[in-house]
Amino acid sequence: MSIEFRIRDFAYPKGIVRLRRFFEKSQWMHPDELREYQRHLLRRTVRQAYFHVPYYAQLFDALRLKPQDIRDVDDLWKLPLLSKEMVRANYGALRADNAKRFRPSVVCTSGTTGEPLRFLVDKPSNVLEFVYYWRHWSWAGYRPGDRFAQLRYDFFVNHPRMRDRVWHFQPHLQRLLLNPSVLSRHRIGEFARVLRAYRPKFLHSLPAHLRMLAEFLKEKHMDDIQFRAVFSSGEKLTQDERETVESAFGCKVLDSYGHMERSMAVSQCLNGGYHIHLEYGILELADTKQLEDGVVLGRVVSTSLHRMAMPFLRYDVEDLVELFPEQKRCPCGRTLPLLKTIHGRKREGILTSDGREIAWVFVPFQYVRGVRFYQYVQEELDRATVRIVKGQNYTPDNERILRFWFRRLFGDRVSFRIEYVSEKEIELDGTGKPLMLVRRLNPALRI
Ligand SMILES: [Zn+2]
Fold it and tell me: Are 236 and 310 in the same domain?
C-alpha cells in the first residue's frame, strides 16, 4: 500500500486528533468492546450504502434486505462478494449520491488484469489512513516530527527535472525522498552520503527496494547507516528480504498489508505479530480451506468502515492469507487479532544488467484503456516482451503511450517488444490468475 498525503490532508486536525486519541486506546480494549465499535461502524456504513449508493439500494432490494438485516459481521454472508470486475463495471452506481459531502477524490490502480480500477477515497478515509499509519509507526517509537526516509518513485517520475536525482528533502514533513529508479551499485555512494547527512530515524518502502538498498550498501561495506525501524508495505515481504534488511540496518522490519481501497489493514508489531486493525475495516475469509494443522487458508474479503463516498461491502481483495486455528494473544499485549501469514501476490520486477529490479511494471498500464490482459516475459537482462490481449476499446495510440511510459520508467537501458496475443497464450499462476511477469532468465544471469 502506498499513500501520499497532500497538504490538504492535514487540514482536518480535529478529525485526526479525535480518531488518533481513540485508536491509541482501542488497540488495548477488551475484544468485545472492539467488536462493538466495529459493529457501530458497520451499521453506519450499511445505512450509507443503502440510502445513498444506487448499486447497493438495488442489490438490497433485489435480495429483500433492509439495513437492519446487516447489523453484525456475522450477517455479512447475506450479501454477495463485490469483485474488482464489478467495481469496474459499476463505478457510477457505486458512487454515493451524497459523495460531495465527503470531499471525494478518484484513485486509479491497476492489477494483473490490465484494466485500471477506479474508485473514490474521501476525507474520512484520509483521516483514517493518516491515523492508521501514525499508530503503526508509533509501535516502533515514531513520533510526529521524526525524520524518515522513503524510497518511492512517483515524486521523481512526476517531476521531469527530478528524474535522475537521488533524493529530495521535504522539511514540512521531515521526509527524505529517495529515488529507487536510480538506485544501483554505481550510485549507491550518493544514497549513502545523503542518508549520513540527514540521518533519518526510520525508512519506508517496498520490500524489493529495501532489499536493493541493503544489498548495495553491504557490498560496499557501508555498514554505518542504521535506523530505529524499517517499514515495508505494498507487496509481500519474503523471509529472505526481511533478513537482508534487518541485518543491514540493525533493526526490525515492521511489515504491513493493506490496499489503496482502504477497506482493511494489517500490520506488524515489534513482536512480529500481524495485527488486524479492526477499527479500520472488516476482514473476512472466503473459500476457506482447513490445512492439516488446523490453520485456515482463505481469500481476503474486506468491508470498508470509513469510506463514505464509495463504501465497499464484502470486497474481494484476491489475496490469500492464513489464520491461526485459535485466536492467540500477542506478547505485545494489544488486543487487535492476529493473522498468521499473508501470501498476497508477489510483484516481481524487470531485472537489469546493472543489478536493479524495476518493480513498477504495472504502471504504464494505468494510462491506457482497452487492455484485457498483459504480461511481461523476461528472457534476457535489459529486455522484455510485453504480451497484450486487446479488449474492445484498444486503440493504436496505446502503443505510443505505453512506449512513452516504458522509456520514462525504465530509461533507454531496457528495451520492450510488444506482442499481441490471444488470451490462451497468457500464462496463469496456480490459482488461475494471469501472471504479471514471467521470468525465463538463465539462472547464471540473475544477479
Ligand atoms: Zn503484537
Answer: yes
The residue from 342, 364, 397 where one domain ends is 342
The enclosing domain of 366 has a CATH number of 3.30.300.30
Give the separation between CA 1 and CA 311, rounded to whole angstroms.
Answer: 18
Residue 112 has pLDDT above 60, yes or no: no
Quote the ligand 1 centre to 238 CA distance (angstroms).
19
* Cβ neighbours for 347, distance < 8 A, ≥ 6 positions apart: 208, 235, 236, 359, 361, 362, 436, 437
pTM of the predicted protein model: 0.79
Domain boundary residue, one of 342, 367, 397: 342
Separation of 150 CA from ligand 1 center, angstroms?
Answer: 24
The helix (H) or strand (E) run that includes residue 188 is helix 188-198
Q: Report how far ligand 1's centroid is from the alpha carbon of 27 (Å).
A: 10
Q: How far is the CA of 327 from the centre of ligand 1 (A)?
A: 13
- Residue 233 located in a structural domain: yes
Q: Out of 45-49, 386-390, 443-447, which region has the weakest mean confidence (pLDDT)?
A: 443-447
Domain that includes residue 381, residue range: 350-445
How far does residue 149's CA lie from ligand 1's centre (Å)? 24
